[in-house]
Design goal:
- The chain is α/β, with parallel strands linked by helices and 1016 residues long.
- The chain contains 43 helices and 24 strands.
- The strands form 7 sheets. Strands 6-7-8-5-9-10 form a 6-stranded mixed sheet, sandwiched between helices. Strands 15-21-22-13-23-24 form a 6-stranded mixed sheet, sandwiched between helices.
- Strand 16 (780-781) and strand 17 form a beta hairpin.
- The longest helix has 22 residues, at 408-429.
- The radius of gyration is 38 Å and the shape is globular.
- The model is unreliable at 432-439, 757-766, 842-846, 944-971 and 1012-1016 (pLDDT under 50).
Amino acid sequence: MADPSFPSLLEALKTAPTAPDAKAAADRLARAVAKEGLQSLHDSNVLSTLQSFAENKKSGYERESAALGFHSLATALGPPVAPLLLPYLTILYDLFMDKGDVVRNAASAAVKAILKLFPPEATGVVFRQLETILDNGKWRSKVGVLDGLKSFVSSARDAVSVQLGTTLPHVEHAMHDTKQEVSSAAIKCATSLCTTLANADIIPHIPVLVKCMAQPDSVPGCIKALSSQTFVAEVLPPALAVMVPLLQRALNDRSMEVQRRTVVVIDNFVKLVRDPRIAATYLSCLVEGVEKIAKGAAFPEVRAFAQTALDTLLKSGASSAGPPPEHRDVEAEVKEALTALYTLLPDEVSIVSPENPNGPRNPKYITLDASLKYQAILVADLVHNRNLRDTAVWERCIGVYMSNWLGKDKASSFAESVRSHFHAIDQAKYKVDAGNSSEEGELLCDTLFSLAYGALLLLSHTTLRLFRGRRYGILGTNGSGKSTLMRQLRDGKVENFPPPDQVKAVMVEHSLQGEDTSLSVIDFIAADKALAGVARSEIQAQLANVGFDDARQGELVGGLSGGWKMKLELARAMLYKADLLLLDELDRASVQWLEGWLIAQKNVTCLISSVCSFLDNVTSDIIHYEQKKLVYYPGNLSSFVAIHPEAKSYYTLAATSVKFSFPPPGSLMGVRSSTRAILKLSNCTFTYPGRNKPSLYNASCALSLSSRVGVVGPNGAGKSTLIKLVTGETTPQEGTVYKHPALRVGYVSQHATHHIAGELLEKSTRVLTDEEKKVLDQDWVGKDGSKRKVEIIMGRQKLKKNFRYEIKWRGLDHKYNTWVPREDLLAKGFTKIVQQFDDLESSREEDIGLDGDIAQYNEISGLSGGQKIKLVIAACLWNNPQICVLDEPSNFLDREALGGLAVAIKEWSGAVVIISHNHEFVSSLCPEIWNVEDGRIVQQGKSAVVEDTLDTPRAATPVGSGAEDASGVKLVVKKKKKLTRNQLKAQEERRRLRKLRWLNEGGPKPEDTDSETEPS
């Protein structure tokens, strides 16, 4: 029954002369509703009257009063009234277009008050209402809706992320609105919504992803950034909702480079989608685009990548027929939940049906029925997500809304009865079998995860299972992902790995990059914020345990050699009290004392990415990379090799499948013998500035092309100083250094990143400026007067003392390609294009065992230590040096790669100087040893070439093998017959046909030979 006081209250609100009067009248109305109950909103026509006020186009006072009335109801009545006010949001957002500021402000306040009433579980219900307004409303209404969507990010992050797939398309459509205010608000809204993604790999790219939604021409840059991203987290529907539209656009891009990167990212991304149902729902739309590229891309390489991505898509569960027809039947689930709510309604708020006393009941009040229908939507979502144990959630979804009719206690009991009802149904449907684990020891972690770097999937759905106190040796080929796994564990980015407060992982690396090395050793440790509570005496004791005496503790960190820096890292790691100690390759002197310490630790778990011999003495288990899985073997390295004999390469250098190839050294004028000295140090003394004692004293040594020298000695003895004199990095204060005038020395430092840390991700000398891009569009006028534009350089060949290049013309078939001399291209302004092609042709990354895809497409910053050292070796050999100096080459290379390097050094024709603590590596290659102790050199062995443990003959040097001295016979060089003009034309045609056949059919690139016969 309607309360007689309500008409007067509504009339007072309608006729209020001022805003304060209207606000007071609205508050009185809200208090009256709170006293009479929510049913009075219907019985006294409160809501319908407020609606009529809001729709009165003639009276701005009534419109303001309506907004104030809704605001007071929301504030006074709280969450129970939220389901009843939700349908009136459309009316309030319409008031955003009112001409009066006071009306707009009142409507905005009312909307904010209503939206605050909804719990996170109601996000989907509210978003559906707001999306309708966003699609159909006017521009100020749209801006208000976008702000309303943003307001849920702080209060319901997880719930918002679930709605991204449905909501983002509406927001993206608003980005292209003709009103700038709507477009800007949509971009801010999308950026805010995307921050709710629970995928740490995508979050850094959110601004670029949102920019792609608003500006499709920015897709190529975004795809390039994603192709270099390390993905470690499982890909869930929210991430797919953001990524899939971008990938669809990228698949339609006409650039071959963008298409190549896109299909590679898809191949990698899809492997991290574990649920076939999710893949079928979200990824099926990508199948057609990938299939089109796999069949129709111009480049064979792109077609191959696309075919791989297509296979992965289909294997994941995606289908070219589209998403699966069996979607969630939301309507049926809501109906079932509503039936349960009706059935369990208490007697005081329901009417029992005489025909079916045990069946669904009818609510006594219309407003209660509206609230129950809203609650049914929330319950259906809870049941679907199997959230049946959290009583607080069910209280928010049912108890809060029933409290106005039943009272707080009875409303909570009703919510619990509904939860118990559906929990019992769920238990009957999903029976859980308890399992027991018979593993011994305390389980440190049992983590299911995947690991990828950009386009390369390293580990797929594998388990990291570690027990406290055990020592695991992790083995795998170089580039398999050992370094990436350790870095992700160190940074806490491995999916499902326990947080640092539960399992503290500390990694010991080879360098102290990015840290202040101007401090003394002990001050360096004490300055670590993580060790603020550690006493200085404890730091001193720990440093002494790893070999730092009082004098060395006072030295500057920047002046320490690589070996002492490693010991400093180990001391700091021990002070961290780590649960999981991650150890990289250690030098021989450092691990002699470390072996005993590791074995004695019962509470520290060790993960050792190393292949040196101490694994036999230290490890209790072996973790081996096998087909993108981690496979566990009990025992040490010997036990592992007994099971897998093919892993013998972890023991012997010669047993390797990795092949390196070094280019021949450049010729030296006047050097006719491989034993003639090309570099000589005589009585050299060197003292570093600020030190009284010389680091190197009265040193004398010499190198020839046949030299194979191993430099050994303890850390800090002067080895690095000696090498700096050899490479010319420093000059001695006393003594002389003789070098052949044309001598070139290649140097690989102890730390690979020393050479490339300062490199840009892309060479500035190869990046095209806007002016140079315009050059590509200029017309090339041929001899016959025809005009063409350059598209790409396809090939290069020798032309007298220079080169000429095969040019593919824009818009013309390959058969119209022509050869253009280098001078002509440079004169036209194509300098950087020519340099880019020269870089590609001249690169030798494949020769030093670096995968071609990694060498060409991956950026340096993301390479592992082993891959970086290979890159540095390639750079070292770039200019064909006669002497190659390798400082600790075994630090980053795995056993197989080290064996390949040893074979390449044995076969090379230049001089090699090796600094290494790896006794096996040095002794197998170097018959001559320079033992550096306390700044003095003691030479041992022979300088001539002798037999060693590799038993592989060395090729003769091209600059002077001694063969010309062995006999007086003069070699007869057959002069090549000059070809006629017709023969040259025929030869060029054969080359063109070979190139065309390779472009069409793929496969290995044919040799550019001068032979008239086709290569077999």
